[in-house]
Amino acid sequence: MQNIYGYTINDLEKYFESFGEKKFKATQVFEWLYKKRVTSFDEMSNIKKENQEKLKADFSINQLNIIDKKSDIDVNKYLFELSDGEKIEAVLMRHDYGNSLCVSSQVGCNMGCSFCESGRLKKVRNLETYEMVLQILMVKKDLNIRISHIVLMGIGEPLDNYDNVVKFIDIINSPKGIDIGSRHITVSTCGLVPKIREFINLGKQVNLAISLHAPNNELRNKLMNINKAYPIEEVIKVVKEYIDVTNRRVTFEYIMLKDVNDQVNHALELAKLLKGINCYVNLIPYNETSHIEFKKTGQEQIMKFYDILKKNGIGVTIRREFGSKVKAACGQLRAEHKEVA
Ligand code: SAH
Questions:
Q1: Sorting pLDDT into bands at 50, 70 and 90, what band is 292?
Q2: Do 289 and 332 meet the contact criterion of CB atoms below 8 Å apart?
Q3: 255 Cβ inside 6 Å of ligand 1
Q4: Residue 321 among the catalytic residues
Q5: Catalytic residue of the set 13, 86, 89, 128
Q6: Can you tell me the mean pLDDT for 85-96?
Q7: 115 ligand 1 Cβ < 6 A
């Protein structure tokens, strides 16, 4: 049985029309699900009994189970259990501009980045659309807050789960649903070039973040397997296409790994690579994990790197560190549970 949270408004309109009902029933259901936040079809009081029964027979409305939760002042981290027992994470970060939720897109990940905890555990399966939508609803309800931004930067490679991610964006972006503006949604990818191209052609004004992490192919090949399939020059080419079509600035994420990619020559090479592109670099302090030998770059060296980029005309920010006390690094909570289980 399909879970109702995986249906776009368009899907639901088609559903109602398939048995001769009016399209606007879909809007009513959407409002119950996303504005009034009921969790049973019985509570949808403007839907007639007969249709409530039909919905019940055709859809599940099951939620996710929250099985662990860790909090700090500026961060709330959730571990969910899915109906098949798999576990995923979502992390709520409180910024001064609003609350941003980092959503997972897969159980594990197959991209095999050498520094990343999620990849260490390999991909088990893609998340269904409803499992992504429910991460938002569960956190919203648990904390009773507004979530203004969504980043697809949790466990998994979103563009390796393309169709479900596109549906997810459609549902959360709908004014009749959770209504998160496309400019407040960010898809982060390790660089699946053909999928980025497909994504551009969708014509959505969603932000694109590229996990770059190295200024040349030799180093990027060592850190990120995907670079062997889609080297830096192809990534840069598709980023330029994105900018041409959307006129939007791209973010390059760059994890600072001590003595690996954080030296002066790397900064200079990166500045040269990105010169003239409408982008900025987000320097990410590495979140160390006990299983992987990489170390985080010290604050002083991060500042040095930052200054070089800045002096060379590249927009640059340093990511604020959230919740290192609560193991907020990608996939760490899930990994921890897997190992004790
Ligand atoms: N697969 C997508 C999105 C998930 S990872 C991608 O690669 O972009 C989200 C970001 O977290 C990526 O930039 C990833 O490289 C980074 N990341 C992974 N492990 C990390 C760690 N231990 N500390 C800091 N950032 C990490």
A1: confident
A2: yes
A3: yes
A4: no
A5: 89
A6: 94
A7: yes
What are the residues whose beta carbons fall under 8 Å from the beta carbon of 266, sequence distance 6 or more?
214, 215, 219, 305
Query: Structure pTM?
Result: 0.95
pLDDT in tens, 250-274: 999 999 999 999 999 999 999 999 9
Q: From the CB of 190, is ligand 1 less than 6 Å away? A: yes
> Has 113 been annotated as catalytic?
no
284 Cα: distance to centroid of ligand 1 (angstroms): 9
70 torsion bin: left (phi>0), alpha (psi -120 to 50), beta (else): beta
The phi, psi pair for 292, rounded to 5°, reads -120, 140
Quote the CA–CA distance of 314 and 263 in Å, as a whole number. Answer: 17
The count of domains in the chain is 2
Helix (H) or strand (E) holding 29: helix 24-30
CB 297 near ligand 1, within 6 Å: no
> Do 77 and 37 share a structural domain?
no
Q: Assess contact for 64 and 138: CB atoms under 8 A.
A: yes
Domain boundary among 40, 60, 80: 60
Residue labelled with tokens 């190992």: 339
Residue 204 CA to residue 184 CA, distance in Å, equals: 12
Q: Domain range holding 12?
A: 2-60
Query: Which atom of ligand 1 lies nearest, measured to the CA of 160?
Result: 1
Nearest CA, atom 25, ligand 1: 286
